[in-house]
Design goal:
Chain lengths: ~210, ~280
């Protein structure tokens, strides 16, 4: 059951546009990597995750296809779990894509993309999971335009929050925190991923159970 | 008697003060085609959505195959085939991709059966759903609904917007489906000519209430379309009409007391009504 739903999500996202999608991802990767190095990988991953959520949600709503899925013997929790699996699988694909690109460019002596370290992988997965955890329930519940608005305000909010924290934090505390984080980043990342996905799934289920189709 | 659908006291309102369903009751026995008719906004689609648990009921009970829908949802849905008015299919997917979703959902999906319908309906699996005409989309929906040996076929306005030829093909497919033992069809429509051809039972919904629930033959036998000269009407026989329209020197009306009126209006013309005649008369009442 999960497999057919995940395959459906990817059929919708990829359609006949695999070439276009790869070109888009490469474009993001090259532009960001040139200026911000390894950040290109993180931004490409989040962009792809957003693409999955946005496209699948738009098609579900446009065709009222969720009514059809729920008329079948799919349970609500299966549909919700499959959506999380699709998004997380997206991260695996992007990481694999990045590793392949790094190896190909290395072969041609182009060193634009930095090799993927385990720290970067974990931290990006952590950020990706947080992003998916916040946006996935929103896409289930609200119209796409509303989610776009909420996302923009969230990005703005996080930026303002970051500036406020930076202004009010002393350097000693920051250095101590960084050292601590560097030591325990793997445990922290796993905990954040697990917690965010668990809480998000519960919220999604709550939304989904209360919705009418 | 085995009932496939049992609805008791079903109520639903979307907003406070406007009740779409006002406590409807009906039962559908196994092995029949039941036509669910009513004007637009009568509550047909709401009833079907409630039967599929797509929306939440305010009150009442829904049993399918003798089992409570909420407690046995997955098992019940595995035995139901669905055809929606608009298809609700993913327009960007190829037919073969859409089929994979269905095949993954139903435990008794029959690939050979599916291939048989695809060939019969001359559908090309490589095509995208958005490339199909409305008629072809409905045929594809029917092929998907019939390929897992469903015991109950629920269809919401499946023939609306289809040309007469495709509608006939659709009706023929339902006839073929009914040839197998124990199959039941629940079919909402406002195109009543389809029901004249195929329905065994008619359930009529008006403003959220079931106003008629009878075997089709009994319903048409009990009623008559009466035509005659206006001077035949008097205050006593006028009350025996469900609806009556007077034009110039003549009248036309539908009665549910055919025998009594025949005795009183010997010179009037009594014709067998169609389901549409009966539906319109009851709606105008």
């Amino acid at each position: 059951m999960y497999l057919s739903l995940i395959r459906k999500d990817y059929s919708i996202v990829l359609r006949n546009n695999i070439g276009l999608l790869i070109a888009q991802m490469l474009f993001i990767l090259i532009i960001v990597s040139t200026n911000l190095g390894i950040m290109g990988y993180a931004i490409m991953a989040v962009s792809f995750g957003w693409q999955i959520l946005m496209t699948v949600s738009a098609k579900d709503k446009m065709n009222h296809s969720m009514s059809l899925l729920l008329s079948m013997p799919f349970q609500k929790k299966t549909i919700v779990n499959a959506r999380y699996m699709s998004v997380m699988l997206g991260f695996a694909f992007v990481s694999l894509f990045y590793i392949v690109i790094v190896e190909i460019t290395k072969f041609f002596h182009v060193f634009l993309f930095k090799p993927l370290s385990i720290e970067v992988f974990f931290l990006t997965l952590c950020a990706y999971s947080l992003f998916a955890s916040v946006t996935l329930p929103l896409y289930l519940k609200f119209e796409d335009s509303v989610v776009r608005g909420i996302s923009l305000f969230s990005i703005l909010g996080v930026t303002i929050l970051g500036v406020l924290i930076w202004d009010n934090t002393n350097i000693r505390f920051l250095i101590d925190s960084m050292t601590w984080l560097k030591e325990y980043y793997a445990i922290i990342c796993v905990a954040v991923i697990f917690l965010s996905i668990t809480i998000s799934r519960s919220v999604s289920m709550y939304f989904f159970e209360s919705m009418e189709f | 008697m085995d009932y496939v659908i049992e609805i008791n006291g079903l109520e639903k309102s979307y907003t406070k003060g406007s009740q779409i369903l006002k406590g409807i009751d009906f039962k559908i026995e196994k092995g029949i085609v039941a036509g669910f008719i009513g004007m637009n906004g009568a509550g047909k689609t709401t009833t079907i959505k409630l039967m599929l648990n797509l929306i939440k009921k305010d009150a009442g009970e829904i049993k399918l195959f003798g089992k409570d829908l909420n407690e046995n949802e997955k098992e019940i849905k595995n035995r139901i085939g669905i055809v929606f008015d608009q298809g609700y299919l993913y327009e960007d997917l190829k037919l073969s991709d859409m089929k994979k979703i269905f095949a993954g959902a139903y435990s008794n999906w029959d690939e050979d059966n599916y291939k048989k319908y695809i060939t019969l309906f001359q559908l090309d699996e490589k095509q995208r759903i958005k490339q199909l005409s409305k008629g072809m989309k409905m045929k594809f929906s029917l092929a998907l609904a019939l390929s897992h040996h469903a015991d109950l076929l629920i269809m919401d306005e499946p023939t609306s917007g289809l040309d007469p030829k495709v509608r006939n093909e659709f009706i023929d497919m339902i006839r073929t489906f009914m040839e197998e033992d124990g199959k039941t069809v629940f079919f909402s429509t406002h195109i009543t000519t389809d029901l004249d051809k195929i329905a065994d039972r008619i359930i009529m919904l008006n403003q959220g209430e079931v106003i008629l629930n009878k075997e089709k033959d009994v319903l048409l036998e009990e009623h008559a379309l009466v035509k005659g000269e206006k001077q035949m009407l008097n205050s006593s026989n006028r009350t025996q009409f469900i609806s009556l329209s007077e034009r110039g020197f003549s009248f036309e009306g539908l009665t549910g007391q055919k025998e009594k009126l025949k005795r009183e209006m010997e010179n009037a013309l009594f014709e067998k009504p169609t389901i549409e005649d009966v539906m319109i008369a009851y709606m105008e009442r």
